[in-house]
């Protein structure tokens, strides 16, 4: 077990995985082994599985590490109260645990509960000051975020610079600090500093991306999901009108649309639920290109598609039992609209669209998972991804019978009196003024937009790219006019 601990501490994940296989083969794993297995799944962003291992570890032997693993899973899904509860459980097991306190503060900050987050952080800062030392690095990192909310941007930058210079964060933590620094600089109108910080952050774990190869992949997807071929594909007999999906590029207003719908008393949002993404991976693994559809899907016949669709409806209804429309804004939806339409013939699709220049800047500055979205690390790559997203959505509009509503971010923020009701009417619901108060919801939106949808509507993000015009020179952007 000592070797496993060493490998985990050194972030040598493959080594740790092999060592854990040796421990678990032929025997029942103990609480520590289950915890480490959960960590490996967390590193792979398999959050549900990571939580399952954490819960199994806790059942065998309550321990603060497993409690925090579960807390982080809740935090990622925006389940703030559950995340806080598990942080408190970790603190019961290990009073004063710094990671538990920082995770609790971070969960509250992301939920827009800034005063509660401050109540966690400030006593720790004061105690460290009285003892003539700095607070621990995880606490200072959360403090920097709270300083930004207090508009103390220069202080936030100073805290982050000190953390980077004197606390030797690993690459992942350093990248996170740099994205926070970029945000602070942007708020302070130090756009050069913001861009440089994001540029340095994006260099960590950056993967190659070939726009031409991506275009070919999109072409292959559209060829595979042509109207003629789809006519032979399995189709679900699910008749539920509950499932609604938002598709489009990230940073295009998807979170705002989700929050507007969720504010309606007869609707709800479930965030970026990846159930359909997982089914798409199963289909891809079973696909046999040597056979004609529907035989090419192997065991996934129409009956199976109906089962998947009805299971999804039960899943989202469990999350929102009284809602008549439940929206899912998973980032992969633009690729899956064809599959979604075959699973849910009565669904409605909302296509979120935003100026490609603003999308490029926002993605570049935001801090996405570079391994899952390598195109976010360069402005020109984001533009290439934007063009292909539009191309896919145009294909779906031309080949599918399900209704698809275009919602331009610029119109949404400048003319909410028209656009908000237009969205609700598209869902087949009567207008409710609660939708204009979307920012008052205590629901946590766990995306890069979390601190934006917790505020009243504002227009300053439209045209944000103008602040970075000097850094966009030489990039060819497609024409775009939301009011044409």
Protein architecture, described:
It is a single chain. The protein has a five-stranded parallel β-sheet with strand order 2-3-1-4-5, sandwiched between helices. The mean pLDDT is 92. It has a domain at 211-471: P-loop containing nucleotide triphosphate hydrolases (Rossmann fold, 3-Layer(aba) Sandwich), CATH 3.40.50.300. The protein is mainly α. The chain is 57% helix and 5% strand.
From the structure provided, what is the oligomeric state, counting identical versus distinct chains?
Answer: single chain
Shape: globular
Q: Spatial order of the strands in the main sheet? A: 2-3-1-4-5
In percent terms, what proportion of residues is strand? under 5%
Q: Which runs of at least 5 residues are low in confidence (pLDDT < 50)? A: none
CATH class value of the domain at 211-471: Alpha Beta
Q: What is the mean pLDDT?
A: 92
Largest sheet: 5 strands, parallel
Task: Provide the descriptors you would attach to this structure in a database record.
484 residues; 5-stranded parallel β-sheet; 57% helix; Rossmann fold; globular; mainly alpha
Write the SSE topology.
Layout: H1 2-9, H2 13-24, H3 31-43, H4 47-60, H5 64-76, H6 80-93, H7 98-110, H8 114-130, H9 137-149, H10 153-166, H11 171-187, H12 191-202, H13 211-224, H14 227-230, E1 243-248, H15 254-262, E2 267-269, H16 275-286, H17 302-319, E3 325-328, H18 333-343, E4 348-353, H19 356-366, H20 379-399, E5 404-408, H21 409-414, H22 416-426
Parallel strand pairs: 1-3, 1-4, 2-3, 4-5
Helix pairs in contact: 1-2, 2-3, 3-4, 3-5, 4-5, 5-6, 5-7, 6-7, 7-8, 7-9, 8-9, 9-10, 9-11, 10-11, 11-12, 13-20, 18-20, 19-20
């Amino acid at each position: 077990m000592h070797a496993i601990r060493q490998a985990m501490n050194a972030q040598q994940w493959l080594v740790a995985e092999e060592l854990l296989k040796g421990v678990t083969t032929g025997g029942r794993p103990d609480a520590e082994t289950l915890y480490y297995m959960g960590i490996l799944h967390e590193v792979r962003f398999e959050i549900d599985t990571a939580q399952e291992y954490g819960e199994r570890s806790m059942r065998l032997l309550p321990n603060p590490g497993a409690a925090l693993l579960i807390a982080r899973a809740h935090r990622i899904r925006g389940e703030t109260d559950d995340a806080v509860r598990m942080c408190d459980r970790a603190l019961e097991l290990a009073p004063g645990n710094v990671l538990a306190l920082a995770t609790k503060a971070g969960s509250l900050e992301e939920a827009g509960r800034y005063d509660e987050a401050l109540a966690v952080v400030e006593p720790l800062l004061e105690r460290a000051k009285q003892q003539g030392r700095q607070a621990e690095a995880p606490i200072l990192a959360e403090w920097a975020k709270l300083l930004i909310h207090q508009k103390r941007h220069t202080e936030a930058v100073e805290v982050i610079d000190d953390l980077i210079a004197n606390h030797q964060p690993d690459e992942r933590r350093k990248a996170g600090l740099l994205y926070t620094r970029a945000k602070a600089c942007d708020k302070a109108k130090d756009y050069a500093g913001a861009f440089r910080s994001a540029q340095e952050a994006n260099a960590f774990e950056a993967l190659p991306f070939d726009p031409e190869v991506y275009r070919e992949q999109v072409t292959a997807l559209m060829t595979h999901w042509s109207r003629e071929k789809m006519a032979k594909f399995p189709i679900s007999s699910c008749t539920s009108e509950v499932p609604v999906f938002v598709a489009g590029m990230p940073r295009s207003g998807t979170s705002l649309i989700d929050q507007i719908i969720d504010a309606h008393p007869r609707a709800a949002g479930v965030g970026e639920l990846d159930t359909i993404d997982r089914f798409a991976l199963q289909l891809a693994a079973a696909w046999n290109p040597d056979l004609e559809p529907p035989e090419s899907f192997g065991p996934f016949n129409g009956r199976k598609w109906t089962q998947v669709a009805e299971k999804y409806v039960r899943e989202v209804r469990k999350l929102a039992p009284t809602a008549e429309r439940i929206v899912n804004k998973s980032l992969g939806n633009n690729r899956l609209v064809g599959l979604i339409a075959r699973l849910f013939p009565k669904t409605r699709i909302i296509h979120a669209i935003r100026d490609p220049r603003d999308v490029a800047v926002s993605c570049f500055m935001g801090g996405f998972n570079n391994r899952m979205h390598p195109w976010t690390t360069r402005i020109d790559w984001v533009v290439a991804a934007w063009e292909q997203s539009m191309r896919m959505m145009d294909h779906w509009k031309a080949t599918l019978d399900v209704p698809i509503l275009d919602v331009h971010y610029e119109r949404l923020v400048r003319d909410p009196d028209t656009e908000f009701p237009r969205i609700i009417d598209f869902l087949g619901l009567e207008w409710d003024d609660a939708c204009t108060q979307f920012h008052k919801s205590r629901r946590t939106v766990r995306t890069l937009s979390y601190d934006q949808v917790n505020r009243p509507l504002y227009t300053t993000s439209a045209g944000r790219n103008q602040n970075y015009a000097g850094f966009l020179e030489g990039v060819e952007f497609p024409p775009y006019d939301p009011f044409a």
